[in-house]
Amino acid sequence: MMVHMEVSWLRVLLDNISSYLSLSSMDDLSSNPAHKYYTRGEDIGKLIKPVLENLIDSDAAPSELLNNGFEELDQYVDELREQFQSWQPLSTRIFYVLRIESLASKLRESSLEVFQLLKHCEQHLPADLISPSFEECIELVKLVARDEISYTIDQALKDQKKGVGPTSEVLVKIAESTGLRSNQEILIEGVVLTNMKEDAELTDNDTEAEYLDGLISLTTQMHEYLSDIKQAQLRCPVRVPSDFRCSLSLELMTDPVIVASGQTYERVFIQKWIDMGLMVCPKTRQALSHTTLTPNFIVRAFLASWCETNNVYPPDPLELIHSSEPFPLLVESVRASSSENGHSESLDAEELRQVFSRSASAPGIVSEVVCKTKRNNNAAADRSLTRSNTPWKFPEERHWRHPGIIPATVRETGSSSSIETEVKKLIDDLKSSSLDTQREATARIRILARNSTDNRIVIARCEAIPSLVSLLYSTDERIQADAVTCLLNLSINDNNKSLIAESGAIVPLIHVLKTGYLEEAKANSAATLFSLSVIEEYKTEIGEAGAIEPLVDLLGSGSLSGKKDAATALFNLSIHHENKTKVIEAGAVRYLVELMDPAFGMVEKAVVVLANLATVREGKIAIGEEGGIPVLVEVVELGSARGKENATAALLQLCTHSPKFCNNVIREGVIPPLVALTKSGTARGKEKAQNLLKYFKAHRQSNQRRG
């Protein structure tokens, strides 16, 4: 039976379908993670649209059932259109695709029902309404794909609970179906899902929180799987330490920096992450309390030495970040991956600190590295660690390794249970009344903690840290030095940093810093305090515990390695505003200016601390009075790219503070190197140079008006 239906209502439905089909002209539709579902809706819309047009032009009117069917179709078409138009790149892709998939499935089923109803009443419709036949339309709709990623995800979560999955094939399928193509997209998804989980927990929605927790685990496994694939693709002749690879780029780092969460990343990649508005740590998903990027001198130094020793040449990070696909792609990487298994190797923490802190007067062993980019048959980036004709330098430091120090090639590791048994015995020996027994135990733990990330975890889990902390007060110089070095090695593990600090190690470390029997112990104490201070809350605690004055003393009168460790620790502590004044009042500026002499090999370390201190009034005055202006100008002219950036930042602070300082800076001849910096410096260096030149111009005009 046919009933009258207003033509205007049919036009609304027709307009909605036309609006949906017009989405194909959107510039960003192809990058939408649910793009394939748009195509399915498009196929159905193109079948329905001529039927609606013919109905409007004819005198026939649909039945009530058809009215309901068309109304339902209108709802799904409208919702799908809104979903595609409202897509935001920083929203959750998994939930978005699941929502789109649900609507697309409903649209498919609803359109089938409509065509079946039309088929049943086609004898009441004009002939031009049924060409092609509704039977053909039904078959065409049935051909529209209906594979559901929701089922795959639900099954993966169930398997995950049972501890039997998911497989790598399932991970890749989920990633491909939800638009999680690149490592960056996977990490962003983890961050967004974590925020959603926190919201669910706040509203006591335990079911949703549990579901989200499962999805977070899936994204973590995707990241780890991609990381393993990239490890295999590095084609390095030796195992690459996992500590040397950036979690964002998955490549060897060349300019590692520490963020507020304590994690280390390649500078240009984490800066790109922050510039996107992502104020969270990609790895821990913690909110970042600030955007300061602290150079990780320790990792950079050991990385450079390792690369030189093993004849490995990392890619240029700037070339990577400016490529069409700066972040590794999961699906393409799976297709391009070799059959070889990747290996990982942990940092040798003690060697790392030794490499960082030894004499810089030796010839620079690692002065330049080269990069080369290859592309495989699928046009996916395969950045090989091989030599090319394009020289490229590690940033800032050029004198990392003493020629007599050879990184250890033998790794003392065993099964977790055998190491745990040995460590428990060694902890008992640490408590022995025999100095010889204590001495042997601390020396052995030092070796174990140096060799392996797994060993560091086992040693901490066996609760060796409190016993090692107590030995910082030992009257035996060897026991004290080995105990502090054990803590330094253990602190490389991020979780161990908190365990060490919470075991009350900060005050005993300061005791060693002040009264240590050996220079090695003092230097390693400073390095350990630096390691702990990468966690924001410990910056305050270390400063309030009285570490700054002995660190400044070490900066002024310690060995060269001690000076370097002290400078690094003071830099990190001075990020915290309350510590800046303490560092200045302890007399650090005079020593830092002295260490700007290239003969010490500490120009980069000294200038970055001065740039930090120049942000407060007392620091500006001290730098000006201690003769810091000429050496800062010299760095702007002759320093490294990062050194020029920091020196210019410090000079900008001084000039805007005092007309006298401004005149002194100009007299030192800073303008030509500043002009050069605006053309060839880092992004921040260019900005600071431009601002300083603008200030000089305004300063000159002000003087002319007064004259």
TrEMBL record:
<keyword id="KW-0677">Repeat</keyword>
<dbReference type="Pfam" id="PF25240">
    <property type="entry name" value="PUB2_N"/>
</dbReference>
<dbReference type="InterPro" id="IPR011989">
    <property type="entry name" value="ARM-like"/>
</dbReference>
<feature type="repeat" description="ARM">
    <location>
        <begin position="546"/>
        <end position="588"/>
    </location>
</feature>
<dbReference type="InterPro" id="IPR016024">
    <property type="entry name" value="ARM-type_fold"/>
</dbReference>
<protein>
    <recommendedName>
        <fullName>RING-type E3 ubiquitin transferase</fullName>
        <ecNumber>2.3.2.27</ecNumber>
    </recommendedName>
</protein>
<dbReference type="GO" id="GO:0016567">
    <property type="term" value="P:protein ubiquitination"/>
</dbReference>
<dbReference type="Pfam" id="PF25598">
    <property type="entry name" value="ARM_PUB"/>
</dbReference>
<dbReference type="InterPro" id="IPR058678">
    <property type="entry name" value="ARM_PUB"/>
</dbReference>
<comment type="pathway">
    <text>Protein modification; protein ubiquitination.</text>
</comment>
<dbReference type="InterPro" id="IPR003613">
    <property type="entry name" value="Ubox_domain"/>
</dbReference>
<dbReference type="Pfam" id="PF04564">
    <property type="entry name" value="U-box"/>
</dbReference>
<feature type="domain" description="U-box">
    <location>
        <begin position="239"/>
        <end position="313"/>
    </location>
</feature>
<dbReference type="InterPro" id="IPR013083">
    <property type="entry name" value="Znf_RING/FYVE/PHD"/>
</dbReference>
<keyword id="KW-0833">Ubl conjugation pathway</keyword>
<comment type="function">
    <text>Functions as an E3 ubiquitin ligase.</text>
</comment>
<feature type="repeat" description="ARM">
    <location>
        <begin position="587"/>
        <end position="628"/>
    </location>
</feature>
<keyword id="KW-0808">Transferase</keyword>
<dbReference type="InterPro" id="IPR000225">
    <property type="entry name" value="Armadillo"/>
</dbReference>
<dbReference type="GO" id="GO:0061630">
    <property type="term" value="F:ubiquitin protein ligase activity"/>
</dbReference>
<dbReference type="InterPro" id="IPR057314">
    <property type="entry name" value="PUB2-4-like_N"/>
</dbReference>
<dbReference type="InterPro" id="IPR045210">
    <property type="entry name" value="RING-Ubox_PUB"/>
</dbReference>
<feature type="repeat" description="ARM">
    <location>
        <begin position="463"/>
        <end position="505"/>
    </location>
</feature>
